[in-house]
Design brief:
heterodimer, B: eleven-stranded mixed β-sheet, 11 helices, 23 strands, about 35% strand, binds adenosine-5'-diphosphate, binds magnesium ion
Chain lengths: ~260, ~475
């Protein structure tokens, strides 16, 4: 039975997901407690982005079995934007450009859509500008980028920092970062890490998807999981990440599935 | 891409907001067009003999012409004998004040959000309300007259200011110009006349609201705006019609004349009934609009937001005769359902140091077809002429189409001409991105579309920019449940 821990933020059981008729996730299990940071590592094509898209409700990801609960609520029956309203945020592996849509306006509309949905009062323009300026300086995003169109013509690093800025503004309950560290130089990496660390609170959780362990030098995870062939094959603490770094991903794919979160 | 498909389906089903019919007794000619019809119209308007002669000349010219086929639009042949060329609310004839106007008419305009009562009107905007073939009311005429501005129905101007009409009417769009312009010159029934005297900055925004109500009638209106030396005016027109299964023809002619240092800003928010999702019904909007920058340093600017009509066929143009004159064209054209639009502009550079700017934004959804057609012509004597054209197309879904036909004729080597064109799509990625941040799909589409149209909306007078934005949102609204 689904006996839930009271401090559970995200509880995934036997999640099976098809994309275009092909099964990508094969009965994945994952428990993330409130306030915890979990890292998921795995080779390319193992299903990391599939997991992040499924959790955030992207079209085309067919859940054929299993469940995912956010703070006890069935996540999978909600629309994409309803999940956002409940506090799910996905920093995307490939942030999308929105030509003609002002970055600041986009963030204000997003924040206010979330506030409206939660029955909170909308933030007026002046308070919003104050908020976003403060947050932008925290993530060291050039304030000029606030006036530009969303991600339009941004460099790779600027796009990733813009994701972190949006995360900081929206203050999600569950932040999923899909390879936000990929392609960043060390300074940008630290900024991303600072952004995530600043968000850490006992009522928030983070799912860090990463290919490399170096991000974990700056964001120390509570748990590390290894994803291979659509399953979590190994879970452990930070030392698992170092082990992976050492041995590469080759040996992982031979491993049988382990009960993720069991080691928690 | 299931989400986008779904939204497109919903777009198609979105209903038209101004489709009501006003049940009012009208004086309507039986369908048919002959010399007799034209004599009849002229008699109804008690026109002077010269006006009737002009009409007949145009009619005989029209008889020798054929319906043009070069536009990228398709429609069955129009039976010109099946259209009524005159329809006017009965009660209204000879109304001199609002009290004498049929309350049902006032009501119709209230419903459309255009109160004709000056107390309730939008501040700073005077309205000429044209209902089918006649102008039923013109507001703030006294305030304008105090400033020396003439703002009245053109049928009245023919009576009251025959010298001005004879001097200017048909000098920008002659009766020989094209098939629909000839037809209009023969049968036009009403429209707006504006005269801004020398040095006067028109104290209010002027506007005309065109309403087609009666079935089986064509609306043929004629607008003439003259801005004398050093004067300026901003004018806006809006248009709606009931939902009917038959197509109705709207063939207007608009002429603008700007003398030395004069400036005319002409904005259109066109929301004629577009027909249903299968292309049944809707207005054929075949319009000739042309501005003549007759004077040095004169300035004519066209801004249009075209969301309605089954078929739109219009090219608001500028003839840049005066040295240092400036022509501008800013356009947003939306086609959804089975709508077709072939629209653009002509910029004809004749004078020295003339400048033109073209910004065209085409949005196609569902099975809509959107064509930009533009001509930039730099004449032999147009030293240092400059043009910049920007034509962008946005596609929503994959059953719609966008087409761009820029024509360029340069006969003077000093010309500087630039043309840029882009086509983009609202992608599944973009919608997912927006929705992941908490925005609804409708909000996301509206934000992306409004962003796309920003440059054009910025050109509209403030109140109308807000209206246009709302209209666009309604037009593209999907009932996402
Ligand atoms: N939209 C899609 N269509 C078809 N196959 C896909 C799609 N998205 C992902 N896949 C496939 O699913 C598998 C997992 O991909 P993904 O989740 O992106 O992996 P990762 O993020 O771990 O690199 C890969 O084999 C990939 O080819
Ligand atoms: Mg990935």
């Amino acid at each position: 039975m689904n006996q839930m821990k009271t401090n559970s933020m995200l509880s995934i059981k036997s999640l099976t997901v098809d994309v275009e008729g092909k099964t990508i996730l094969h009965g994945l299990n994952l428990e993330i407690g409130k306030g915890e940071v979990h890292a998921i590592m795995g080779p390319n094509g193992s299903g990391k982005s599939t997991l992040s898209h499924t959790l955030s409700g992207r079209d085309g990801y067919q859940v054929t079995a299993g469940e995912a609960l956010l703070d006890g609520e069935d996540l999978l029956s909600l629309e994409t934007e309803e999940r956002a309203h409940r506090g799910v945020f996905l920093a995307m592996q490939y942030p999308v450009e929105l030509p003609g849509v002002n970055n600041m306006t986009f963030m204000r509309e997003s924040l206010n859509a979330n506030r409206r949905a939660r029955g909170e009062e909308e933030l007026d323009a002046v308070s919003f500008i104050k908020l976003v300026r403060a947050k932008a300086s925290e993530v060291k995003l050039d304030p000029k980028l606030l006036k530009r169109d969303v991600n339009s013509g941004f460099s790779g690093g600027e796009k990733k920092r813009n994701e972190i800025l949006q995360m900081a503004v929206l203050e999600p309950k569950l932040a999923i970062l899909d390879e936000t560290d990929s392609g960043l130089d060390i300074d940008a990496l630290k900024i991303v890490a600072d952004g995530v660390n600043a968000l850490r609170r006992k009522d928030r959780s983070v799912l860090l998807i990463t290919h490399y362990q170096r991000l974990l030098d700056y964001i120390v995870p509570d748990h590390v999981h290894v994803l291979a062939n659509g399953k979590i094959v190994r879970s452990g603490d930070k030392s698992l990440a170092l082990e992976l770094e050492d041995k590469g991903y080759g040996w992982i794919e031979q491993l049988p599935e382990t009960a993720a979160g069991a080691s928690a | 891409m299931p989400a986008i498909e779904q939204t497109v389906e919903e777009l198609v089903q979105e209903s038209y907001q101004h489709g009501f019919v006003t049940d009012i007794e009208s004086d309507t000619f039986p369908p048919g067009l002959s010399e007799e019809t034209i004599r009849h119209i002229s008699a109804k308007k008690s026109e002077p003999a010269w006006m009737l002669e002009n009409r007949l000349k145009a009619y005989h010219r029209w008889l020798t012409m054929v319906d043009p086929e070069w536009a990228h639009v398709e429609y069955p042949e129009i039976d010109f004998q099946d259209i009524s060329y005159y329809s006017a609310p009965k009660q209204n004839q000879g109304a001199k004040s609002l009290d004498e106007i049929d309350p049902q008419l006032l009501d119709a305009y209230n419903k459309l959000g255009i109160p004709l009562d000056e107390q309730k009107a939008l501040s700073g905007i005077a309205v000429d309300a044209v209902f089918d073939s006649v102008s039923v009311a013109t507001t703030f005429r006294q305030n304008l007259a105090d400033a020396g501005v003439i703002f009245c129905p053109i049928s009245e101007a023919i009576q009251e200011y025959p010298e001005l009409i004879q001097q200017y009417l048909g000098t920008v769009v002659p009766y020989t110009d094209n098939f629909y312009a000839s037809l209009n010159a023969a049968v036009f029934t009403d429209g707006t006349f504006v005269y801004i005297p020398k040095g006067v900055k028109c104290p209010m925004e002027l506007s005309t609201y065109f309403r087609i109500n009666e079935a089986k009638t064509g609306q043929f209106e004629r607008t003439l705006i003259i801005a004398e030396e050093g004067s300026s005016v901003s004018y806006l027109e809006g248009c709606t019609a009931p939902m009917r299964d038959e197509n109705q023809l709207h063939a207007a002619v608009v002429e603008l004349i700007a003398m030395d240092d004069a400036s005319i800003k002409y904005s259109t928010v066109q929301n004629w009934y577009p027909g249903d999702e299968n292309g049944k019904g809707g207005i054929y909007n075949f319009v000739t609009k042309r501005g003549d920058c007759r004077g040095d340093r004169s300035h004519i600017s066209w801004t249009q937001v075209e969301t309605g009509s089954a078929i739109t066929w219009k090219y608001p143009s500028c003839i840049l005769k005066g040295d240092d004159s400036v022509g501008e064209f800013y356009s947003v054209a939306v086609t959804r359902g089975m709508q077709q639009a072939d629209t653009g502009t002509k910029m004809v550079h004749i004078g020295k140091n003339t400048t033109s700017t073209i910004v065209s934004k085409g949005i196609s959804a569902a099975r809509g077809q959107n064509t930009y057609r533009g001509l930039v012509r730099i004449g032999q004597k147009a030293e240092n002429a400059r043009n910049h054209s920007q034509c962008d197309s946005l596609l929503i879904g994959d059953k719609c189409g966008a087409h761009t036909f820029p024509y360029l004729e340069v006969r003077n080597p000093t010309a500087q001409v630039e043309h840029e064109a882009t086509t983009s799509k609202i992608s599944e990625d973009q919608l997912f991105y927006c929705r992941q941040r908490g925005l609804s799909e409708e909000n996301a589409i509206s934000m992306i579309v409004n962003g796309f149209c920003k440059e054009v909306f910025n050109e509209l007078p403030m109140e109308f920019a807000v209206e246009a934005q709302k209209l666009l949102n309604i037009t593209l609204e999907g009932a996402v449940g």
